[in-house]
Amino acid sequence: MSAPRVRLRSGVGPLLLVAGVLLGVLLWAGMAVVGPAVALLPMALVICWWLFWHPLPTLGLLFATTVLIEGQSEVWPVTLDRWYGTIGPTPLHPPDLLVLLLLGWVVHERVRTTRPGPGLGPFAPPMALLAVALAFGLVTGYLGASDRIDLIGSARVLALLLVVPLVTAEVLGRTARTRAAVGFAVALVAGRAAIALAGVLTGRAPGAPGSSGVTAAVSAEASTFYEPTMNFLMVVTVLGITVALVRRLSLPRWLLLVAPMLLVTIALSYRRSFWIATILGLVLVLLVATGRRGRPWLVLGGAAVVLALYVAISAGGSTDATNPVLYRAESLNPSKLTTTTGDRYRLDEQRNVLAELRAHPLTGLGLGVPWTVRFALSEYHEGGQLYTHVTP
To answer: Distances in Å between the alpha carbon of 244 and those of 95, 140, 290?
Structure first.
């Protein structure tokens, strides 16, 4: 049995030979100038080509790396700072490259099929307002006293906020795999939350240097992942499960176990802004989803929050001296807002930012321009004048 022969069109063979020689020369020159890492360029191009034509795995990779690659290794071992570093001499980060590949596929599909995508629906006006604000912020920052690196970094964050929802809706709408994608996302968030809960219960969350007791627990951020991303995703997942239950939609049974676990993990996060967001979110979701007949669901929702807080508090102790949840909750008392340097810093920061807004009421500072320290701060954070805390 003879093997099948692969015939090339006339003239293709010499072209492939010339292309191979040119690629070899370019790689040799690149390795001499940059280093051996240039040899990985052909492999990187092949991977990018595959990701471009497979948008659903690309979107899954973007979400999975956002969830998994952050945090501290003591609680979560998957930490890779290089993932958020720049690619070679370009200002792009690996997540930026994934978003650009997704955006390129969306543009290609719209041109090829001439079929409009799902769009942004009711979110179009606020997204348009954000786009206008981004444009004005770029111009004001560029003409002002901005650092170009800070200007690009600030614009990058807002640009991702504009582009990612659009490409996500397009990819899921055109591939008709929304249910599978949501299941993957919820399972990933639930798995990470479970590992977080195990980390705090086994005492693997270290406190700040020189801290002990309840202060060490709070400074460790315990079971939440140190960055707001996981807290936000857990709150969204809880609200989504709540809506499905209220609307009596069919849900996998494992989600009924996931929701209480997420509530406990949010309570153990010690992030007060997400406590407030969860409570207000549950109230709003229950009111909107149930209408006038939603009083029983409001009672059940309140009971779920109380139960989660009870479990979280029971895990620590009976007083604010031994229980970090009580310690953190009592810090919301107006009379105790200035007892910690962190809260004093936020109040001082707010005072400075409000003064800056009064000084520039129309144009603002612009992107990449730090606000001026007019009033003394209780703490110093590198790059802290490029942003502001707007919640407790």
So the answer is: 31, 44, 11
Q: Using CA atoms, how far apart are residues 198 and 142, in angstroms rounded to an integer?
A: 47
In a 13 Å sphere around the CA of 325, the CA atoms on its Cβ side amount to: 22
pTM: 0.74
204 vs 138: CA distance, rounded Å: 43
Side chain identity, residue 380: Y
Q: What is the dihedral of CA 62, 63, 64, 65, to 10 degrees?
A: 50
Question: Distance between CA atoms of 326 and 44, rounded to whole angstroms?
Answer: 50
Which pLDDT tens digit goes with each residue over 219-251? 444 444 446 788 889 999 999 998 888 888 888
Alpha helices, DSSP H only, in the chain? 12-33, 41-53, 55-68, 94-113, 124-143, 148-175, 178-201, 213-219, 228-246, 253-267, 272-290, 295-314, 324-330, 341-359
- Cβ–Cβ < 8 Å for 53, 108: no
- Cβ proximity of 59 and 168 under 8 Å: yes
Domain boundary assignment for the chain: 38-175, 177-330, 344-386
CA distance 218 to 341: 13
Distance, CA of 35 to CA of 33 (rounded, Å): 6
Give the Cα separation of 24 and 248 in Å (integer).
62
